[in-house]
Amino acid sequence: MKAITFENQQVQLKPQEAVPTCGEGEALIRVLVAGVCNTDLELIKGYMGFEGILGHEFVGVVEACSDTTWLGKRVCADINAACGVCPVCVDEKNPHHCPNRTVIGILNHGGAFAQYVKAPIVNLVAVPESVSNDRAVFTEPLAAAFEIVEQRPIHPHERVIVLGDGKLGLLIAQVLSLSTPNVTLVGRHHDKLALLRPMGVATRNSREESLDDLQKSAHVVVEVTGTAEGLDLALNLCRPRGTVVLKSTVAEGKPLNLAPLVIDEITLLGSRCGPFERTMQALEAGKLQPEVLIQHRFPLEKGVEAIEQAAQKGTLKVLIECG
Amino acid sequence: MKAITFENQQVQLKPQEAVPTCGEGEALIRVLVAGVCNTDLELIKGYMGFEGILGHEFVGVVEACSDTTWLGKRVCADINAACGVCPVCVDEKNPHHCPNRTVIGILNHGGAFAQYVKAPIVNLVAVPESVSNDRAVFTEPLAAAFEIVEQRPIHPHERVIVLGDGKLGLLIAQVLSLSTPNVTLVGRHHDKLALLRPMGVATRNSREESLDDLQKSAHVVVEVTGTAEGLDLALNLCRPRGTVVLKSTVAEGKPLNLAPLVIDEITLLGSRCGPFERTMQALEAGKLQPEVLIQHRFPLEKGVEAIEQAAQKGTLKVLIECG
Fold first, then answer.
1. What are phi and psi of A81, to 5 degrees?
2. A220-247 per-position pLDDT tens digit
3. For chain B, which ranges sit under pLDDT 70?
4. Which alpha helices (H) appear in A84-166, and where do they start and end?
5. What ipTM describes this predicted complex?
6. For residue B217, what is the nearest residue in chain A, using CA coordinates?
7. In this complex, which of B216, B261, B272 lies closest to A246 when CB atoms are compared?
8. Is A255's pLDDT higher than 80?
9. Contact (CB<8Å) B97/A256
10. Interchain pair A258, B241: CB under 8 A
11. Average pLDDT for A13-40
12. Which among A99, A240, A258 has CB closest to B249?
């Protein structure tokens, strides 16, 4: 089968000898559409030391499965493949943090920029008929946004600020708007901020507008810029005893001043992957419009170009049509 | 009255023209004993831009008060003097974070290294007869330790690691031992670690013993070393979805790697001042032995020497006997 691989520091379209082999408890999925994520771009820079088939945001159709009820169904799949038998999986019921886990397209598990990908059956989530492929392909990053409210429920009276108008910031602002009408997205790009205003999200362009009136105002600030300056600003905008959610790894190399965290007793909450079921329910209910982020589409054969396009500064979602 | 002041970059014994003037709602307290805290040493280095009478850990006797029921009573006092009328005080019931607050001996409020100090009546806590001055003088830092369990209750089955065997680390390990038998204190000093072993606290000397077996083991790690290395280690010892409590400001100038916080979805919790009532109840119940930290005593006249002694590396608690 055809696949986009990262090997020996190189991204390429590389034919594979065979489709992935599925064992008991696994499903073989024919990939329909996949999305390029910033994590893919980080992997190409050396993050996690990954080598293999890239891609972890996808929607596809089950082609082979030991549980035949899944055959022919359109699905998304949680990317964390846990062992299911260790204390973290069994006692703590915390498979997303299984120390033996593989992660589709990220850690010891082939990815979805391919004609076929495999996933554990327990990871599958059926895509309802009313949810288009263009929406379903966003399930994984939307789930990462829902993880925030799983960890720290947000109430309708609370004020939320999302810092960063990149792909994930735009999805998070949408998802948190389901919990409170008081979401402000802070970014630096007119066109990106404009995408969310019709959805009732307030916006500020930090290049042009002061944020002084927002100081210590937010119950929850979500930092998605991935910069030390973003974290400083987040601590500044968060009210005492509020929560700053760290959704992307802050670039190393810059000292951080955590004194405000102690003085204002702020909770800094690391947040990663989230719940697929809850996300799919929200998509089915028509509450989210992630497809406004789609800017480019490439066939699998041009997957290398797709990734190059995604790496261009300012690009939102690039899709790879695999089948 | 006599007082130890920090003015023009200088710590000195400086006679004051008068005792503090008390308004409605305030009490004048004759100080019996005060303790030197690391925060005092930080203030002398320029922290908070403080000038005035130092000292915020103390026990004394009420000499004047508009509420006469307090007269003659032995008391400690919460150091955060809130305005009582702003939204943070009234709506959020969060006076410790009042934006208009003064803080005894730290922010726009004269301190307790003096014959007299004043405090709001609402801040007073009576010292039961069974609690000696040598124990009561630890109420403020012990309250800071109890703040941890106010913010993040600790259950008996949970494993806790305290990083740092300085004054605050030793008090925190004692206080958290009231919640769980599984507290390990990690430090670098035989003599300090030995102080807590009779209290049932496990200890590790990180200069001599490996911590490898503790990796990702703790539900809660309290970082009290105030170093970037300490925070790195704390993130390493904390289990996925666990909590790292940041109790002292991490020295600036060193880049921090917060990637483990995101990947392991760790909660980093800033923690400052705590509940005096709860602390006094624990002291009255005889559950804490903070006095094992006392190493030196100086009369108020030698308060400058007391602070110099406290600044010597490795010194635990230095007391100033004021009256």
1. -100, 100
2. 999 999 888 999 999 999 999 999 999 9
3. 250-253
4. 87-90, 133-136, 139-151
5. 0.94
6. A88
7. B261
8. no
9. no
10. no
11. 95
12. A258
